[in-house]
Write a structure and sequence with these properties.
The protein has 7 helices and 9 strands, in the order E-E-E-H-E-E-H-H-H-E-H-E-H-E-E-H. It is of the alpha/beta class and 254 residues long. The protein folds into 2 domains: 141 residues, Rossmann fold (3-Layer(aba) Sandwich); 69 residues, no CATH class. The chain is globular and about 50 Å long. The two termini are 25 Å apart.
Length: 254
């Protein structure tokens, strides 16, 4: 009988926000997820990595409640913000109106919402495009805008599916560092799906490594690099060894 894997004591003082116990999921007759055991702790940053097509996005959608499953998932989450692989902006709203929307829904004054959204757009090189509609923006600009809007929602749990995939390397790093500083201040729980191992190590408290289909979680790795992280963290002695361990796990799954 399959038993729950032993859990690290790294988060023993933090509450469990989501507890997945033996999740199985099929697309028609194809088993995508097999015996998934995973805990998401309050105020942690958890990354999920694995081979292309192994079911990472499916797992994220299940966490978001977008896919029904009869398997046991215990959740204490009251509000979720979810950003899909291709972040969706409302086509009939300008870029700044898209960013203002979650702030105004939360009850912010329109002028204050405008000022906050404008500052963030300026910080990420999008200020001059504030009055553009999504159809007038490049794919990378739309992705940046969708990511910034997701973060402004301010939900308890934030689910991100490859949020920086369409962003150039300079802005990708800038967004990563901004995300680190934001979470240091507001301590949200984030689950990130990414193909970028370096990104996962830089951002995460833990990394769940998935196998090829039918996918299981082969191992959950604690990223024991001191926080707060910055560019110097990339040269920390543990960084390369963690990267090597993850690549070895992924190599063994084929």
């Amino acid at each position: 009988m399959l038993k729950r894997p032993l859990q690290t004591t790294f988060y023993q003082n933090q509450g469990i926000l989501i507890d997945i116990e033996g999740l199985n999921f099929y697309y028609n007759d194809l088993q995508v997820l097999k015996h998934i055991y995973l805990q998401v702790y309050q105020r942690e940053f958890l990354s999920i990595v694995g081979p292309s097509g192994c079911g990472k996005t499916t797992l994220l959608k299940i966490l978001a409640g977008l896919i029904d499953t009869n398997d046991r998932i215990n959740s204490k989450v009251s509000e979720i913000a979810y950003m899909p692989q291709k972040g969706v902006l409302f086509e009939w709203k300008t870029l700044i109106s898209n960013l203002m929307l979650p702030l105004m829904i939360k009850g912010k004054n329109k002028n204050l919402a405008y000022q906050k959204a404008r500052k963030i757009l300026d910080d990420f090189g999008l200020g001059q495009f504030k009055d553009y509609y999504p159809s007038q923006l490049s794919g990378g600009m739309r992705q940046r805008g969708a990511f910034l809007r997701t973060m402004l929602i301010g939900s308890e749990l934030i689910l991100l599916d490859e949020p920086f995939a369409a962003v150039d390397e300079i802005n990708r790093r800038k967004l990563q560092l901004w995300l680190i500083s934001l979470l240091e201040r507001y301590r949200k729980t984030v689950v990130l799906v990414t193909h970028n191992i370096e990104e996962a190590i830089l951002l995460s408290d833990r990394i769940a490594v998935m196998s090829d289909k039918p996918s299981t979680i082969m191992k959950t790795i604690v990223v024991d690099i001191p926080k707060p992280r910055n560019l110097d963290s990339l040269t920390h002695p543990r960084f390369s060894s963690l990267e090597k361990a993850i690549y070895e796990l992924l190599g063994s799954s084929f």
